[in-house]
Amino acid sequence: MNAYESRPWLAHYPSGLSEHLDVEFGSPLEMFDAALAASPDAPAVHYFGATLSWADLDAASDALAHALQEHGFAVGDLLGIAVQNEPAIVLGLLAAWKVGGVAALISPMYKRGEFRRALDDFTPAALLVLDEVHAEVADELGSIGLVVTASPLDFAGSDDLQRVFDVSRVSTAGTVELLDLIGTGSRAVTRHAPAPDDVAVLAPTSGTTGPPKGAKLTHRNLTFSAQAYRTWTGLQSGEPILCMSPIFHVTGLVGSVMLALSLRSPLILTHRFDAGLVLDAVRAWRPAFSVASITAYIALADHPEATPEAFDSLRLRYSGGAPVLPDVAERIEERLGGMIHNVYGQTESTSPTHMVPPGVLAPVDAETGALSVGLPIFDTMARVVDERGEPVPPGTFGEIVTAGPQIAAGYWGQDDDGSALRHGEMRTGDVGFMDADGWFYVIDRSNDLINASGYKIWPFEIEQVLQSHPAVLETAVVGIPDDYRGESTRAYVALQPGAEVTPTELIEYCRERMAAYKYPREVEIVGALPRSATGKLLRRELR
Predict the structure, then answer these.
(1) Quick one: pLDDT at residue 269?
(2) Do 350 and 28 form a contact (C-beta atoms < 8 A)?
(3) Is residue 272 situated within a structural domain?
(4) What is this structure's pTM?
(5) 3-state class of 115 per DSSP?
(6) Residue 481 domain boundaries
(7) DSSP H helical ranges for 245-302
(8) Residue 151 CA from chain centroid, whole number
(9) pLDDT tens digits for 409-434?
(10) Are 128 and 82 contacting, i.e. CB atoms less than 8 angstroms apart?
């Protein structure tokens, strides 16, 4: 028996927990139906001073589901969803599942070209999209059967949203508005009961060898991970969940929406993250749990009105998506009170594979200074392997590999291509180690992926945009340390002979063509890029 099979981490599990998790539900729709049956009038979503009950969500998602079926949406079809953290995204998920469909998540932060690529990858039969996004990408939609537009103002009960984000309703010709559909549409739906191994969500993830792929997350993946969060943290039914992570990413989807369904708890949404709005929401709704990137907690700690008293209800604070430095965690804990706990996973692992037990101070590795990302959760085998895939002893660096009920079924439209998902295992691409007590640490990544505030950035996407500038000869993008975002992007650019352009102009050129988290924060003009004798770009020299 090797160190991984002996599972030394079990000694550190939360009190009374075993390594095995008995999952109560087979699909998120079953979780929703149970919440609806138990307390139909109980609060399900809080959004800018307004509250929607479970019955409200049921009626509104029925109307959307009916419209989908009326437009020929069939079992197994894809509903593209490009919405921020608003009630509409919850309605879209429920409607898709009620008719046996798959929710294909698309970032509403995408620019035209990025949105077009997502549509080409997923080919959705219908689309639920923010009106402001539709205005930008309308001529990229092609022949999608039904396009439903939502506004961030839908369901809002106060003007705080407009005050902070300056949003307004946008005219969307040729679409159906969500509120009109809900107000006038039929609730007659031919319900489909999804099987646990049916695909529920396509979650986009930046690959290490190419463009983003759609990870096929099954209903079983989602219900397992939701209950893992619930059981590990000890959250009680009805305790409010604060959503600070984007729901179109796996952390917000699972650690907020799915968890709230599992707990029959109200979900607190704020459209996008804003420290002041989140502080207001915490005061108003008194959430017990949240999971977000460390950047969000830094912003909260820096808010002038932040105090430990303001956040005393938020007893469970987890951080995922980006590494947490020990001194940063200490500063946040001093400012906000409470403890910041790590959670670790990937899109392909439906969020958590490792978590720090509540109330436990995660160890810091003396040699590297790294804060542990936690212990493997229920039913999860985690190991560290060498280049041949062989397990290495505790304390030895290697690639972290995970396996368990939360691992995705594969990638949309792709067979097993020898990439991250192999034989039910997830090759994370993260370099780290396990200590003798079973705590895991992430030290670096084995690829060129850049992680800024939890957003994954593929350098080639930025390089393609820069390369399209007439003054640019060639370019390379690397990640650089950033105290606030964890990692940021720097582009090295060689210019065409005789060409002139400033770094500021190139940054602005990218900003106009890319999502806000992607464009390079720094550009350095160089005479030439370093290459090997065979012409291979040497990124390590740029770093």
Answers:
(1) 98
(2) no
(3) no
(4) 0.85
(5) helix
(6) 450-542
(7) 250-252, 259-263, 275-285, 294-302
(8) 21
(9) 999 987 655 567 877 789 998 888 99
(10) yes
CA-closest candidate to residue 281, choices 161, 374, 175, 129: 161
DSSP classification of residue 497: T
Return the C-alpha torsion angle 91, 95, 101, 107, nearest 10.
-20
pLDDT, tens only, 194-253: 999 999 999 987 543 446 689 999 999 999 999 999 999 999 999 999 999 999 999 999
Radius of gyration of the chain (CA): 23
What does each C-alpha distance from 337 to 44, 200, 301, 323 come to in angstroms?
28, 37, 10, 20
CB atoms within 10 A of CB 327: 11
Bigger pLDDT: 74 or 476? 74
Residue 22: its pLDDT value, please?
Answer: 92
- HSE (side-chain half, CA atoms, 13 Å) at 125: 19
CA 95 – CA 74 distance, rounded (Å): 12
Which residue, 461, 431, 460, 435, is CA-closest to 446? 431
Give CA 496 to chain center in angstroms.
39
Q: Which amino acid is at 469?
A: H
Please say if the pLDDT value at position 502 is more than 50: yes
How many domains would you assign to the chain? Answer: 1
Nearby residues of 111 by Cβ (< 8 Å), 6 or more positions away: 136, 513, 514, 515
Q: Which CATH number fits the domain that encloses residue 533?
A: 3.30.300.30
Collect all residues with Cβ–Cβ distance below 8 Å to 464 and sequence separation of at least 6: none
Whether 454 maps to a domain, the answer reads: yes
Q: In angstroms, what CA-CA distances link 237 with 153, 227, 319?
A: 29, 12, 22
Both ends of the chain: CA-CA distance in Å? 40
Residue 383 banded pLDDT, cuts 50, 70, 90: very high
- φ, ψ for residue 485, nearest 5 deg: -90, -5
Q: How many residues does the chain have?
A: 543
Answer for the pair 334, 525: CB distance below 8 angstroms, yes or no. no
Q: DSSP labels for 7-26?
A: -GGGGGSPTT--S------S
Q: What residue type is 222 in one-letter code?
A: L
Secondary structure class of 103 (helix, strand, coil): strand
* Ramachandran category for residue 271: left, alpha or beta (phi over 0 → left; psi -120 to 50 → alpha): left
Provide, for the chain, the percentages of residues in helix, strand and coil under a 3-state DSSP scheme, each rounded to the nearest 5.
30, 25, 45
In a domain, 483, yes or no: yes
Choose among 283, 282, 284: nearest CA to 292. 282
- Quote the CA–CA distance of 259 and 346 in Å, as a whole number: 17
- Asked if residue 76 belongs to a domain, the reply is no
